[in-house]
Protein: Protocatechuate 4,5-dioxygenase beta chain
Organism: Sphaerotilus montanus
Amino acid sequence: MARITASVYTSHVPAIGAALDLGKSGEPYWKPVFQGYEYSKQWMQDQKPDVIFLVYNDHATAFSLEMIPTFAIGCAAEFTPADEGWGPRPVPKVIGHPELAAHIAQSVIQDDFDLTIVNRMDVDHGLTVPLSLMCGQPEAWPCPVIPFAVNVVQYPVPNGRRCYNLGKAIRKAVKSYDRPLNVQIWGTGGMSHQLQGARAGLINREWDNAWLDKLIADPEAAAATPHIDYVREAGSEGIELVMWLIARGAMDDVNGGAAPTVKHRFYHVPASNTAVGHLILENT
Ligand code: DHB
Ligand code: FE
């Protein structure tokens, strides 16, 4: 039986990827950001996951206004890092897990969540920057990754409650897979940031940290956060945080098990225009 052993939560910022790729991670501006992930890189090596189910958002890279899936599961054998305007990032290609992805698609769709099946897709900074933060600069990513793209770019976007319940369905799907795999689920994006308009540059430390507290200890309350609160309190791109609720919903405690263990928590400003939040929860 496969099992979700842990969930990882982290912001993504394209400039973090660029800082790493261009050898700037030791510079005074970036050093504190990468230091927040030193623990995590060691933890990844100790954990040796077999598969990462990586919830992220595409930024009009693989998708566009022509086609906007709310939830899309990557079922391909591999995924190429996208060219977002500066050439593809010099990072390894992403190896998928078509068999587990197909199993999860079957189970979750039968559980009333309408997923789009994606058999070919380039992956942008939403997926590659979290991998870089957690794994550094390896020759190959440590294990297969199932990309799971959520639309948080073009309205209407899914609400937190639906994302949280989807996480529960993903947990059930993984549990019913008949091979002994150590699976991690990652929820990425956020925390507070707004990239455009009159409030561009918005950061809300207090709200972010209160929301993190809730996500850990009272995920039902975090899932009940109304959509408008993300936008008002955490800025237009703060809505990326609903993706963290998918990972949280997949943890054992929300299904009647014991509370997860907080292995690591990190929060840092500044990193480009985004408040960087990071959390590692292990199932007990
Ligand atoms: C930034 C943050 C994002 O989430 C993103 O998708 C693009 C840019 C930023 O802070 O620069
Ligand atoms: Fe983003």
Notes: The longest strand covers residues 261-271. The chain has a mean pLDDT of 98. The pocket of 3,4-dihydroxybenzoic acid (ligand 1) is lined by residues 12-15, 59, 193, 195, 237, 272-274 (CB under 6 Å). The domain at 3-270 is CATH 3.40.830.10 (Protocatechuate 4,5-dioxygenase; Chain B).
